[in-house]
Design brief:
56% of the residues lie in helices and 13% in strands. It is an alpha+beta fold and 369 residues long. It has three domains: 123 residues, no CATH class; 89 residues, no CATH class; 144 residues, Trna Endonuclease, Chain: A, domain 1 (3-Layer(aba) Sandwich). A hairpin with a 2-residue loop joins strand 4 and strand 5. It comes from Granulicella sibirica.
Length: 369
């Protein structure tokens, strides 16, 4: 069928198209901000109800622990991920750090916030008190010095810092450095200028893990089509090696403190009775990769390992142009005998590296044809 041509001049079409593009981008930005504001206010309200329930609760030191534990189970069952124990403690901490007494008062001297926000209009009223995104408040919660936390919050608002800028300033102890500086004005002006990696794209704002959790949406996208295809090929390859490998999960997200991680593949090895954590790196193997894998293994050992199972083992897969490597992380095993058994039973590292290289070559060939 022949391509239909527009009767209107190109300039007229470009004007219409560009206007629609601008409209859609503005709407998506506004939607992300609106969701973030409602989410932040909702989490503050949840924190308030937890704290007030603790105050009315039985006079036991462990009442708050049990309350949060039970809420985490019930809310996760009802609303999915995003309401685990760590998240609820964060919401509780959010309310305790930004209580109602810190808000501006009305002329009557009473707080303008409702006693217990439950409707969307009441939540919206709370949202006006929190102009920063939820991820910014999560980062601010990690600052124990109250004056420093207030400084970072004020500067983030005044200078329009992104969450990455805020994180960078906190990590570099900007508050302590500016306190010692003789030219504070120059430092503040310099800090207001974003660096190349500070900007957050619209896609990142919409796919922020906090927003996805709040909306109960799945976040299983990969950083690149090549990485996504390689992960699928590797999963198929390991399953084809025999019935020892049982598939457990793919692109599983976990949060440690304020950092998000994404584990590419998780298997259970039936003969070894252990979890196998697989991490793919599109690039050369480095010490940081080994450190991150050990972080995953320690987390899996503490949170995912079942009674009677052996400690988890990691498989780090690295690939660059024409070269592929595979490394097992066995240093976390309690003894050398167990490590030797793992090496005997697990597939040879070179076998996996060769399969990785073949998969990469086949995928790239299909992409170029």
């Amino acid at each position: 069928m022949a391509e239909q041509k527009l009767d209107r001049p190109d300039a007229d079409y470009a004007y219409v198209r560009n206007g629609i593009v601008d409209l859609l981008q503005a709407a998506r930005v506004a939607s992300a901000r609106s969701i973030n504001a409602v989410m932040t206010a909702t989490y503050w309200e949840i924190g308030r109800r937890i704290v007030e329930s603790e105050m009315r609760g039985e006079n036991r030191a462990d009442y708050g622990e049990k309350l949060v534990e039970q809420l985490a189970k019930d809310l996760t069952r009802r609303f999915g991920r995003g309401f685990g124990r760590a998240n609820l403690w964060q919401m509780r901490g959010f309310y305790r750090t930004w209580p109602e007494k810190n808000f501006l008062q009305t002329p009557s001297g009473e707080s303008p916030l409702p006693a217990a926000a439950s409707t969307i209009s009441e939540i919206t009223a709370v949202a006006t008190r929190f102009p920063l995104p939820w991820s910014a408040y999560v980062r601010l919660l990690s600052v124990r010095n109250q004056k420093a936390r207030k400084f970072y919050e004020t500067e983030a608002l005044r200078s329009g810092w992104s969450v990455r800028q805020l994180d960078r300033q906190i990590s570099s102890q900007f508050y302590e450095r500016i306190a010692l500086s003789r030219n504070k004005t120059a430092m503040l002006e310099k800090a207001a200028v974003p660096e190349s990696g500070d900007a957050i794209s619209l896609e990142e704002a919409i796919k922020d893990p906090f927003i996805l959790e709040f909306l109960n949406l799945k976040d299983e996208y990969s950083e690149s089509e090549l990485e996504e295809a390689l992960i699928q090929h590797l999963a198929d390859f390991l399953l084809e090696l025999g019935d020892d490998f049982a598939f457990m999960g793919r692109q599983r997200r976990l949060r440690l403190d304020d950092n998000w991680f994404r584990i590419d593949l998780i298997f259970f090895h039936r003969r070894l009775r252990c979890l196998l954590i697989v991490d793919l790196k599109v690039g050369k193997f480095g010490y940081a990769d080994a450190g991150q894998m050990h972080l995953y293994l320690n987390y899996a050992k503490e949170h995912w390992m079942k009674p009677g199972e052996n400690p988890p083992v990691g498989l780090i897969l690295c690939t660059e142009k024409g070269v592929a490597e595979a490394h097992y992380a066995l240093d976390n095993l309690p003894n050398k005998v167990l490590a030797a058994e793992y090496r005997t039973v697990l597939p040879d590292e070179k076998l996996i590296a060769d399969a990785l290289e073949r998969s990469q070559a086949a995928i790239q060939e299909r992409r170029t044809n």
